[in-house]
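so the lab meeting is tmrw and i was supposed to have these ready like two days ago... anyway. pasting both below. for each one the top line is the aa sequence and the line under it is the structure tokens. i havent really looked at them closely yet so no promises
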Amino acid sequence: MEDGTYGYRTPIYMLNRIIRLQAVVEIITNETALALDLLAKMNSKMRTAIYQNRLALDYLLAKEGGLCGKFNLTNCCLEIDDTGKAIREITKEMRKLAHVPVQT
């Protein structure tokens, strides 16, 4: 339009839309980070439970060489990385990037 109003899409209208979009992105990022944190926590608990079960099996089967000896397994190393701390660091950075301070 010649008067600079762009129909109903005035600069103020567009600015408000951008601010709303910023808020939506921040909310989605925070919810995603929360979900990842919960998954990381669950992963750590599962890792602990798996190691406890393996320890119990090795104890019960100690006379037969543990779990590996009982089933004649050559590659029987159990190694589950605990990625919880790394995931929590990533989600912390996600929240920082998405956060838009209140502007006056």
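ok protien two:
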Amino acid sequence: MATAPQNPYSEAGVDTAAGDLAVELMKSAVRRTHGPEVLGGVGGFAGLFDASALLSYTKPLLASSTDGVGTKVAIAQAIDRHDTIGQDLVGMVVDDIVVVGAKPLFMTDYIACGKVVPERIADIVRGIAAGCEATGTALVGGETAEHPGLLGVNDYDVAGAATGIVEADSILGAERVQSGDVVLALASSGAHSNGFSLIRHIVSRAGVTYGADAAEFGRTWGEELLEPTRLYTLPLLRLLERIPGAVHSLSHVTGGGIAANLARVLPVGTWVDVDRSTWSPLPVFRVLADLGGLSLESTEGTWNLGIGFLAVVSADRADAAIEALAEEGIDTWQVGVVRSGALPADGFGDFEQGAKGVDGGAVRLVGAYADTH
């Protein structure tokens, strides 16, 4: 009697049928991100995007970004909740594009895992698709790769890349910034997707489990730490349209913290004192710092401390920008003013000058944090 042929790939630990099921489960969510510009649907070898609309630009510049979520995924895996990580990915990738004033066009994602669990993969991609919907980005393709023997059966990592477009004469950046410009802070929703190696280290050393209730937050530790990254793309694009010329540069506060990321979008020869007294860091940062025996000031190069984005705007339109962003549901406030000339030598702290290979301006944080929580 003949025996059924064996699938050697399956014997090696790769389940192609599970991958196909995952695609079926995520299809409807992905399709919701597709406008008429997307051709071919889901599942092709390459995503197709009709670029005819770019012909209306005088000098179109393409903007691109790629990133991942980092070790925040370990918390999602620990509590088996995977529907928020996708929004974090979109925040890390697409919100970098709006920094130059670009409108996102499309995004692709990549998920590497030890074992394809269709429902888990679908949850991740549904989160990515929801984030793409919220930022006006088409999710045109992706890849799920099963790596048995390299990753554990419950392990995965996610990454993505996006492309946007901006008119050449509308690009934002340090060259537009002038002395006297005002620096506005846009509130974050939490830790976003940076500094989680430190967060996990603190939590582990304290013997806290992610499933444990945290009275300070009114939910479990895992739920608090998985709070999704706030998405700023559409509110900022609408701000640029509503008050043309008001915004000179933008900074996404990710790895490196507030000072380093602001310094990247300031011209050489300028400096800013960011006034800590203008805000109170979110409870999650205060609780984590206390748990780790750290001062908030010592974490400033790691966490966003409640500021997810910074906008450098003309002083005469700062109030209008604050009001416009408030209407978008984003608390915004002034944290500093751009100055030019020699750096002050008053001993309140050291300046960060440029970052990530960019020879930019200088920034330091001064004063004491407000304590309103």
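from a quick look at the 2nd one: The chain is about 30% helix and 25% strand. The chain has a mean pLDDT of 90. will dig more after coffe
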